[in-house]
Specification:
Length: 146
């Protein structure tokens, strides 16, 4: 699956428990969020290959029932959760932190889930964050339309 990730230039490859392979290209954890919310059966028992797995993505994948994870780049912050979950995992490059240009050098999602200790906490924390972000965007749009 890592070959598909590289060859197709996508951000996520999922091989579900039936063996069907799908590719995704959204940024960050948006594809995992979509799958958790709209097609959770695609994650149960699945193997995934992702460009970047930090603690947020690892928690989401584990919560969704993924059994195998490969990341081109993996954050050390993801390791304790992966190790305690029993999920098989591998990586091309292990880094101390996920770097996002222009955001003080650190992935905002890693900061948001820093204190989370379980996949369920990660997902609940991220869902709350995404809900708040959506509310802010809606409020800004309403303010601009006045």
């Amino acid at each position: 699956m890592s070959e598909i990730l590289r060859a197709e230039g996508c951000s996520l490859v999922v091989r579900d428990s039936a063996g069907a392979i799908t590719t995704y290209s959204s940024t960050g954890v948006r594809d995992l969020e979509y799958l958790l919310d709209h097609q959770p059966e695609r994650l149960r028992g699945a193997a995934i290959a992702d460009k970047v797995i930090g603690k947020a993505a690892a928690g989401m994948a584990i919560y969704g029932g993924v059994t195998d994870i490969y990341a081109e780049v993996m954050s050390r912050k993801a390791l304790p959760m992966l190790q305690s979950s029993g999920v098989r995992f591998g990586f091309g490059l292990l880094v101390d932190r996920i770097v996002i240009p222009g955001d003080n050098g650190r992935c905002p999602l890693e900061r948001i889930v820093e204190e989370c200790t379980t996949p369920a906490e990660v997902v609940a924390t991220l869902r709350q964050h995404f809900k708040e972000m959506q509310q802010r965007c809606t409020q800004q749009q309403q303010h601009q339309n006045k």
